[in-house]
Amino acid sequence: LPQSLLLNKKILITAGPTQEAIDPVRYISNHSSGKMGLSIANEAARRGAQVTLVLGPTALNAAHPAIKPVNVTSAEEMYLAAADHHKQADVAIFSAAVADYRPEKPAAEKIKKDQANYTIPLVKNPDIAQSLGAIKRPNQYHIGFALETDEGYGSAKKKLKSKNLDFIVLNSLLDPEAGFQKDTNKATLIFKSKEEIKTPVITKEALAKIILDHLESLMGTTETT
Ligand code: C5P
């Protein structure tokens, strides 16, 4: 068997949800389990990569000894950890479901229910994939995800461009087999430099293999010999 092009490569993976504090006992978050990112981390480690997994709060754990987990809670923490590891990374895979907004000023004490209505001012979180995409070096590869509740092709193409990705993996929640907490997925891989491909319904482990096969094929075609 030929050696994997990922052997000894440094791969940064963001995975899982983020939690944005409202007060000391409450937060805003989403349904991400981190399964897709963990599957990619495990498969990349199996291929000999050195993986840094920047992981939001989830019950799941990294399984392979070649994975260095960095546990974070909020989007800002995830951004700082990812930016730090991105400097050395050959590949960055953004699979985290980052909260788009956070409470502007988390309350220091538990908020009491003595008002009929309560409004929480929100401010925008940093877009990790976009910020790091803006400083991406020519020899770095970036992969992102797009989860849409509609068909989503047009917005995925926009994200591919605005986040400066080499390819984006589009999942649609219209597919009953795809999405949060599920073990299976069905995806369209949309590339910067070639025709897109659609996968059938497959496990997240199988999708991880397909994603890394396509990454290796991009690395192989751009590598000078
Ligand atoms: O814009 P949207 O959230 O749909 O983009 C999804 C892609 O961007 C995913 O790869 C996700 O990990 C990444 N992202 C990010 N930081 C954010 C929001 C999204 O890295 N604040």
Automatic annotation (TrEMBL):
Binds 1 FMN per subunit. GO terms for molecular function: FMN binding; metal ion binding; phosphopantothenate--cysteine ligase activity; phosphopantothenoylcysteine decarboxylase activity. Pathway: Cofactor biosynthesis; coenzyme A biosynthesis; CoA from (R)-pantothenate: step 2/5; Cofactor biosynthesis; coenzyme A biosynthesis; CoA from (R)-pantothenate: step 3/5. It catalyses: (R)-4'-phosphopantothenate + L-cysteine + CTP = N-[(R)-4-phosphopantothenoyl]-L-cysteine + CMP + diphosphate + H(+); N-[(R)-4-phosphopantothenoyl]-L-cysteine + H(+) = (R)-4'-phosphopantetheine + CO2. Residues 11-225 are annotated as: Phosphopantothenate--cysteine ligase. CTP binds at D100, K110, F145, K159, K163. Its cofactor is Mg(2+); FMN. GO terms for biological process: coenzyme A biosynthetic process; pantothenate catabolic process. Keywords: Decarboxylase, Flavoprotein, FMN, Ligase, Lyase, Magnesium, Membrane, Metal-binding, Multifunctional enzyme, Transmembrane, Transmembrane helix. The keyword Flavoprotein applies. Its EC number is 4.1.1.36, 6.3.2.5. Residues 8-217 form the DNA/pantothenate metabolism flavoprotein C-terminal domain. It comes from the Bacteria. GO terms for cellular component: phosphopantothenoylcysteine decarboxylase complex. Catalyzes two steps in the biosynthesis of coenzyme A. In the first step cysteine is conjugated to 4'-phosphopantothenate to form 4-phosphopantothenoylcysteine, in the latter compound is decarboxylated to form 4'-phosphopantotheine. In the C-terminal section; belongs to the PPC synthetase family. In the N-terminal section; belongs to the HFCD (homo-oligomeric flavin containing Cys decarboxylase) superfamily. This is Coenzyme A biosynthesis bifunctional protein CoaBC. It comes from Cyclobacterium lianum. The gene is coaBC. The chain holds residues 181 to 405 of 409 of the full protein.
